[in-house]
Amino acid sequence: MSETSVAAPADLAELRAMLSAVAGPINFIGGGTDMLIAGRPMPAVGLLIDLSRIAGMAFICADDGGIRVGGATTVAAIAAHRGIATRLPALAEAAAQCGSVQIRNRATIGGNIANAAPAADLVPVLVAAKARLGCIGRDGASRELAICDYAPDRGFLIAEVILPRDGLLPRSAFVKLGPRLDLSISRLNIALLAEFQDGRFGDVRIAAGALGPRPLRLRIAEAALAGRKLEHATLRDFLAALAADVDAAIPGRNSQAYKRRAISGLGLDLIAQAVGLSPRDQLFEDVVQ
Ligand SMILES: Cc1cc2nc3c(=O)[nH]c(=O)nc-3n(C[C@H](O)[C@H](O)[C@H](O)COP(=O)(O)OP(=O)(O)OC[C@H]3O[C@@H](n4cnc5c(N)ncnc54)[C@H](O)[C@@H]3O)c2cc1C
Question: 40: domain range?
C-alpha cells in the first residue's frame, strides 16, 4: 500500500541531506494555499517536505546590490517590505494584490513560482526584472537558473529569488484585471520596468500573465515605448502594440477579442502608475477618446 510521510527540516543542511537520501517522490509545501486551500489532490506517495520551519528560507534583503528573497517568504512580507517598495515597487504592488489578507499571510513566493499558474501575480514582475532562482536539486546541490528556464517538473526546490541590480530599472508598475477586486485570480496581469527621464522612456521591459501557459515578455509593446517621449502618439502606438502582442500570444482563442480590448485600459493604468500620473490625467483621457 502506498503512503505519504511528512518531514519538517529545521535548516537547509538538513533539507539537502533529505533530498539526496530519499529515493522516492518528494513534494514541497510552502504556505499550502495551492496545495490545501485550493483543493488540489495531495500527493498519495512519497515524502512531503514542509518548508515553513526552515531557518534561512524566509528573508528579504533589498539594497543597492539588488534584491534577494527567500523561497519561503510570504507574499504579505513582500507587500510590506520598505526596501522592495523602494527598489521594485511593482513587486510590492503585485504582492499587495495577491489574494486576500489570509492568503497573503500564508502564500509564499516560491509557491507562486512553482505552482506555475499562467496568472500567478508575482511572476510577470520577476520575468520583467530578469530574476534568477537559487535552487537545490534532488542531489542536494545548489544551482542558479533564469526564471524563464525554471520548470516545476524537475523537482528543484526554490531556495531564493535573486533580482540582480542590473535587472532593476528605476520605474516599475503592476496592474491586474480580475473578476473581483479582493480575492481574484487575474484574468490578465502586466508588469513594467522602465527608465523614464525628462518625459522620455529609455529601456523598457514588460511581461504579462494569463496570455499563455507561462507569463511572457510583450516585445512589441516594449519596442513601441522604448526611447520615446510620453505623448499621445506614443501611447496610441503602445496600445496598438499591446493588442498585437495579445494577437500573437493567443491567436484564435475565445478570450482573444476580450483580452485585446481589456489590455488597453490596463496598459494606460500601467503607464500612469510607472510615471506617477493619475490614470485620469488628461493625457490618457485624450488617447482613449
Ligand atoms: C482563494 C485563493 C486566492 C488566490 N489568489 C491569488 C492571487 O490573487 N494571485 C496569485 O498569484 N495567486 C493566488 N492564489 C494562488 C496561491 O495563493 C499562490 O500561488 C501562492 O503564492 C502559492 O504559494 P504557497 O506557498 O501557498 O504554495 P503551496 O500551496 O505550498 O505549493 C504550491 C506548489 O508549489 C510547490 N512549492 C511550494 N514552495 C516551493 C519552493 N520553495 N520550491 C519549489 N516548489 C515549491 C509545491 O510543491 C506545490 O506544488 C490564490 C489561491 C487561493 C486559494
Answer: 4-50
Q: Count of domains in the chain?
A: 3
Q: Where does a domain end: 137, 167, 197?
A: 167
Distance CA 134, CA 70 (A): 9
Instruction: Find out whether the beta carbon of 108 lies less than 6 Å from any atom of ligand 1.
Output: yes
Q: Which residue, 167, 191, 221, sits at the end of a domain?
A: 167
Q: Please indicate whether residue 89, judged by its CB atom, sits closer than 6 Å to ligand 1.
A: no
* pLDDT at residue 180 greater than cutoff 60: no
d(CA 113, ligand 1 centre) in Å? 8
Cα of 190 vs centre of ligand 1, distance in Å, is 19
pLDDT (0 to 100) of residue 77: 98
Coarse DSSP helix, strand, coil percentages of the chain, rounded to the nearest 5 percent: 40, 25, 35
Residue 251 pLDDT exceeds 50: yes
Backbone φ and ψ for 212, nearest 5 degrees, come out as: 170, 180
Name the percent of the chain lying above pLDDT 70. Answer: 94
Q: How many CB atoms lie within 10 A of CB 266?
A: 19
Render 119-140 in DSSP notation, one character per residue.
T-SHHHHHHHTT-EEEEE-TTS
The mean pLDDT value for 34-38 works out to 74
DSSP 36: I
Instruction: Classify residue 55: in a domain, yes or no.
Output: no
What is the dihedral angle through the alpha carbons of 81, 266, 268, 190, rounded to the nearest 10 degrees?
50
CATH (domain of 222): 3.30.390.50
